[in-house]
Structures are given as structure tokens and as C-alpha cells.
Amino acid sequence: MTDAVVVTDIRKSYGDLNAVDGVSFTVAEGEFFGILGPNGAGKTTTLEIVEGLREPDSGTVELLGVNPWPRNPELLPRVGVQLQASSFFERLTAREQLETFGSLYGVGTAKAGEMLELVGLTDKADVQENKLSGGQRQRLSIACALVHDPDVVFLDEPTAALDPQARRNLWDVLRAIQARGKTIVYTTHYLDEAEILCDRVAIMDRGKVLALDSPAALVRGLDAPTRILLQPGALPLDTARELEGVDTAAEDEVSLTISTRKPARVLSTLAERGTLDGLQVRTATLEDVFLDHTGREYRA
After folding, report:
1. What is the predicted pLDDT for the residue at 299?
2. Which of 3, 19, 30, 224 is close enough to 284 for a disulfide, judged by CB 3.0 to 4.6 Å?
3. From residue 85, how far is each of 82, 134, 142, 155, 160 by CA, in Å?
4. What is the distance of C-alpha 176 from the center of its chain?
5. Residue 44's CATH number
């Protein structure tokens, strides 16, 4: 596959702060690529360099085969960008917003209706932007980034501050965008979302890429134990610890938790003892991979 984005050893510093410290990755055409990391990891700065909004101190970027910096007018129609903070024209309806954004790229007004349908806002076409809900404004922002039919779409935390229903709705929109053959590069703090949507993810911290692969491959590489949760009192704690295949067992007022790297054996034993009622099995997730690489301390 052809690479839509090629990033090679880019660096960006602000005084003593190395915001981006030797980042390299590629994104194939049609790929859904996620950049994950805690606050201050360098995600947004990396994205802005790739988009051509910032100049790197060193390193190179190729976006659709072209260096995005300095700004290349010929490249702009092929790229769509949705920033963390969305800005719209005042007093315009959803349709008028799209028609205005489209006119900047020479796109006819008919495209606005198509984009409204794509993001599920057809019934809000004549509603002013400031009267839309948060989720509707996010979808409108993405539609504005897509109205000129770009080849690569950059989304910076598109589902931030949305309620669960609005987030799920936006997932469908993002899947529909990729189904059109578009390349998507996005950042998010929602690891469950990245695990479902992304073909590959890069985990960043302190300006560096710490891991890069498909979510499934990263989870497999963690070699984390499976956790089996039973109702409190389902088994005496000492008995649980002595079961074949059990690594550790602990109990609190919520559950009896068994950790094991041989879940089939442990589950078979629990079935023989008739203790499967209310049982839950939890395998490692992308969140476990993320915390393993970046640590668990809180960062403002």
C-alpha cells in the first residue's frame, strides 16, 4: 500500500521542553491511525507538524508525497482538519456553514446536503450552529473538514466531552468516512474507542513514540494475566489461591478476583465446583498497554 503520511525523526522544542523528540511513523492510504498519550505527551504538536501548521525544528514529513511546510496551496484541498476547538461563522445555519466552507474550495452548494446526511444532521440543516448540541456541533465540525472531499482527514480528539450516545453515533460517522477510502489520523483519550476504530495506534509520552502496532498486537505483546471475577464468598479465598493455574487471588466486598495465565484450566475447575454464577472474565485491553508504557500517575 502507498503511504499517505511519512514522518521521520521530527523534533520540536520550546525552550527546555522537548515537545516532540524524534518521532517517526507512517500511515498507509485508507488507514485509521490513532495517536494516543497522556496530557502533554506531544500528540497535538505532532499532529500540527504533520498538518503543516507548525514547522519542526528537524526531521521530515511527507503528506501525500509533499512536504506540508511551508504551507503548500496545492496540498490544502487534499487535506481536511478538525481541531480540538471548533470555530464557526456566526449566525449561520448548519447548511450555510457547510456551503461557506465549501465555497472556500470551489465546492458547489449541493455538497452541503450530502455532508449533512453523512453526519446525520439533515434534520438540523436550518438550525443555527449555536443552537446545536455539543455532539451535533462536533459532527458539523467534521462535516466542514470533509466538505471538499479530502484524501486525508486529521481529527484532534473529535469525541471529547461527548456523552456516550453521541460518542457511539460519531463512531458510525468515522467508520463511514473510512469506508469511503479516506485516510484518518486522529488523537483521543478514549482507549476503548481507539481499540475499536483504529487499524494501528502509536502510544506517545514525553515527546516519544513508545509503542506502535495494531491494538490487538499490542495487547497480545503485553502478556497480561486474565482476571476472573466471582461473587464474594463463591469460594473460600484460601481455596481459590490453591486452584491449579491460579497466580493470585484477592477478595473485597465487590468480588473475588483470580488472576491467571491459564484461564481455560481455571474456568474448567470452577465449572466442576459449580461456581460460575455471576462470573466475569476480563482480558487485557489497550488501556492496560497504555498504562504499562506511560505509568499510572495523574497528570493535569
Report:
1. 59
2. 224
3. 8, 12, 12, 11, 10
4. 16
5. 3.40.50.300
- Is residue 164 reached through a cis peptide bond, with omega within 30 degrees of 0 on the bond before it? no
In single-letter form, the type of residue at position 16 comes to D
In sequence order, what are the residues at sequence separation of 6 or more whose Cβ sits closer than 8 angstroms to the Cβ of residue 67? 60, 61
Higher pLDDT, 170 or 297: 170
Q: Give the global pTM.
A: 0.87
Pair 252, 192: CB distance under 8 Å: no
Spell out the residues 6+ positions from residue 104 whose beta carbon is closer than 8 angstroms to its own: 148
What is the C-alpha separation between 131 and 136, in angstroms, rounded?
Answer: 9
Looking at residue 10, its pLDDT comes to 98
Quick one: cell of 267? Answer: 474456568
> Does residue 57 form part of some domain?
yes
pLDDT in tens, 113-166: 999 998 889 999 999 999 998 888 988 999 999 999 999 999 988 888 778 888
Compute the distance between CA of residue 143 and CA of residue 19 in angstroms, rounded to an integer: 30
Residues 24-71 have pLDDT tens digits of: 999 999 999 999 999 899 999 999 999 999 999 999 999 999 999 998
CA-nearest of 277, 275, 241 to 260 is: 241
Please check whether residue 191 lies inside any domain of the structure: yes
Residue 35 in contact with residue 10, Cβ under 8 Å? no
Check whether residue 201 and residue 278 sit in a common domain.
no
170 with 278, same domain: the answer is no
Domain boundary among 171, 194, 216: 216
- Whole-number Å distance between alpha carbons of 79 and 276: 52
